[in-house]
Write a structure and sequence with these properties.
Oligomer: heterodimer
Radius of gyration of chain B: 58 Å
Number of helices of chain B: 12
Strand order of the largest sheet of chain B: 10-11-12-14-13
Structural class of chain A: alpha/beta
Number of strands of chain B: 33
Distance between the termini of chain B: 130 Å
Shape of chain A: globular
Shape of chain B: elongated
Order of helices and strands of chain A: HEHHEHHHHHHHEEEHHHEHEEEHHHH
Structural class of chain B: alpha+beta
Number of strands of chain A: 9
Number of helices of chain A: 18
Strand content of chain A: 5-15%
Largest interface: A-B, 97 and 76 residues
Radius of gyration of chain A: 30 Å
Helix content of chain B: 10-25%
Chain lengths: 471, 656
Amino acid sequence: MGKKIKKGKEGPVKEYVSRTKALKKLQVNLKDFRRLCILKGIYPREPPQKLRKQHKTYYHNKDVAFLKNESILDTFRQRQAHLKKIRKALTRGDKLKAGRLRRNQPKDKLDHLVKERYPTFIDALNDLDDPLCLISLFASFPTHKELHIPNTLIRNCQKLINQFQLYVAAHHCLRKVFLSIKGIYYQAVIQGATITWIMPYPIQASLPLDVDYKIMMTFLEFYQVLIKFVNFKLLGQEIEITDFSEEVIKIKSATSNYQIDIDEAFKEDPTIQQLDQQQQETKKYSELFKGLKFFLYPEVPKASLEFIILSFGGEVMWENDNKNSLLTDPKITHVITERQVQKNKKKEYIQPQWVYDSINQLKLLSVADYAPESTLPPHLSPFEQLNLEEVQSESEDEDQQQKEHKPYQNNKKQKERQAKQQEKETKKLAETMLSRKNKRLYDMIKKKEDEEKQKKTKLQEKKKIIQSKQQ
Amino acid sequence: MNQNNTINIRAIRNKKSIKKDLSLQPKNIHDQYYQESDDSEDEKVLSKIGRLQTKKYKDKDFIGYDENLNKIQKKKQFQDTIDEFINKTENKDWWRVVRDELNNQDVVLNDKQLSMLDRIRKGKTAIKLADDYYFEHEDFNQFDLLSSYNPKRRFLPSKWERIKINKLVQGIKLGRIVLNPPQKVEKIFDIWENVSEDQVLSKYLPARIPAAKAQLPTNVCSYNPPEEYLFTEQEKQQWLQTDPEDREIPFIPQKFKHLRNVPSSEQLTKDLFNRCLDLYLAPRIRRKKLMMKSTDFLPEIPKPEELKPFPTKLNFEFGQIDITKSGQVKQISISQDGQLLGVCYEFAIAFFDTKTSKCLYTKWQVADKQFLGLDFSQSGLICILQSNGFIILNSFIDKRLHPNVEDGQNSNKQIPKNSNNVFEWNFELDDNVFQQLLEVKMPYDPLYVQFHTKSDYLVSTQPHTHVKSHCILVHCISKSSTSIPFQNMKASTEVQQTIFHPTKPELYIMTNKNIFIYSLTKQQLLKKLLAGNQQNSTIAIHPYGDNLIVGSNDQKVCWFDLDMGKTPFKKMSYHKNGVRRVIFHKSYPLFASCSDDGTINIFHCRISTDLSQAPVILPLKVLKQKKKESLMDIAFHPTQPWIYSASKEGVVSLWT
């Protein structure tokens, strides 16, 4: 007989700690614990079923031990002591001292966290979606005293997102764009990592009050540091952006000479060929708007258009104080506007959607559909490609059917029907052949597929009805 | 006038309310202050609201009530803040304009009034007095009468202050105290420049699961979606009625004509906030996600067309004999060459020629005895079970076709009478076709009989014996003896059917729940198979001998692979009633089952000699009768893909 093992001493029980126990262990309050978790990127774990109790969150024991050694915890405690000093000074009426103390509050240093959470640069790039979204959201916010959103924070966010976009534009990393109801989605590929972020429209944002901004700001605190370092790594220096286009041109001129020239002998190596292919692909992206110059009217989202046009190789200008260049500039090929303006025959007049759609389809679309006075074709999501193809193939089928003669069609139809029935029968047979385990999986997946199919058919029916109405 | 006066005095006391009160006065305030004239006509209060606190009506549309208790409305000077702003830019004197709300007019303050206001703010009298200079320039402390002289300490520098200052000075010198510390500029550097393995903390931690990426927007989210994505009136109502948590799309899709028309939405902030909550509050689990289509699961099966031939439809029904006399069908069996079909009725045995469907011979039962079953042997003998025993007939129709018949006959002839036998063996040697060769009498009714492939041995099962060990009997014709292989049988075992293995010396005994495999040479139990059924009814062995099917009264057919284990390889429950019989085809990869629900299921079974490949079992066809009579027995044609079936009513039919 071995030693009797006491309850809770060994096995998976030992690995998990409930939140209250973790708080006790760390000797912090819930507010600080949350902040710590957010900054360190630690999240609750799901223990095995038998250990779980309802309405309880569990953390991994090692995670909590990891938090315990964190240097931020020290600053938490220092700050608490500092707050006490300020309170003391205030009750004594020593405003001067209180002010001085307030100014010299200990601040969290988050630099080491960046490296700890993302040991390599690629790790950081892979997890850049959320930081960029939040930063671009705060960049669009107005200052708010009651919600403690200071001006400095907003300025910093704007700076960071601009720097990042500068890199994306200068190196032609942008791949897809999408105008949604909420904002503009961008997708870029940087060093193989796909990064998607959303930017709100440049309208005065209204702040919903049922949202806890403190939590978002804690996230933002870390994200700012992260993006700061990412930007530095990407750009190689800190750039204060005053004119976006100028900076892009500067960077381009600095890097344009850099291109991999491959020796003839190595050209048949498959990896080299792949690299070559990649280069050609990026060239496609960088030369979509080459030689085009866009003039922006004030009602279009200037910053967004500038960013995407530059990153696809075009040029942008808008009405400055010196009005001489307005439209008389012979280099201007396209004018982006949403209002009906007096037209210059040499220039194309388009709505902003043309730019976004052309990018998604990677070709210059016909300008006529996007003229300011015409109703726009629907703007489709580039992230939903499957649907598009299906719709196209189906419409092709219909066309083919219409072309065929009727007598043949009947014969063919019958044959098709028979073939379909046979297929159905074999499918039924095969279903009976499934083992019980596979059958369950099969049923689950089939249910999902059927639901999707239903949705699609519903959409198509709706489309048909709409089309028939229009005709 | 009195009232006027009080107002003025109050105005001086209360700096805040001065603007309002001043506005009440006529322009020349200076004169008015001194000349206490009694005529109040100078001052015209247009709307008399009494002495009310105007603060209380600050937020309301009216300023108070007149003597008739009617509300006096406020009159807005400007439409909105923009108008006000424009006015400010145009009017240079806007800063000295004071609004008199009572009289609804603007009063422009002149310089004198302004200077008066200034004085009041500084805490001086409103108007310059003669003594003003005195108050402004003289020090009152000179006339401190209470303390006649200053103490010495007032003239000496303080020691303690000196000590304190010295400390501060020293601190500053040493750099301990920094008066205006320069703000630290945060350094930026390439943080990922040199990463060593030791610095990677995460490898000591539990595996980190990256958060799932946020969902990418679909066409519905577009500011200008295709028209079919927009809600109809009905869908909109439905959307509004569903709980916000259950909604498939968290917003109503909208179509905007221009990009500039898209309003700012709070949705994005809320979404990102929820995302933040998810990131730090939600536990993360790595779940396997199947990126498979449903069709990927389906095994590749040959089409039923390719598996032909198998019986698909009813060919014809045999001319039945008088059912009132013959009774129900008990069993059918087919001879090894496929020429004869034997049908066992309750009171008769009929033999049909399978080619012509003609009834060749009928044997009627005598007295109150019953026929219980029959089986053909390889060599052409027919064993017919009847009450209290069985008889054996010969079926030699054409002697030229059966050269080995003679041997069988001869062997029978040579058999000496065995006096030690338990049961009575009577030889009635007869050369004629369908004539009785021998009769064995037993004290109980055998239910099922099977010839061994060598046709010398018979195994008969009689479940309802009073001697339990006599359940299974093995008869040897050449020795004319009956042996009892299982002397010690448990009282609880209910043997249903016993069969020989086609090639090995093994005996398969099917009880209600299990199947036992006995070796006849070693005389021991080899294996026990668990079917898991409540009541097994029938068993059949594949001609190769590696596979087994068992039918049960609880509608199931189990396929056993003898190499695989105890439990069924596959269970098929396609019948809606108890299974009566299962059979294998001798030459085609087919097996069939018939049931009380009146259907025959035909299956394809492909068995490969490669052990790694599992047998392929495919349901092929369900043969349905027109009348849903329960089927008693089925039999495959030994060489053709045909199946014979016998229904309870005595209809024997052929399916091809």
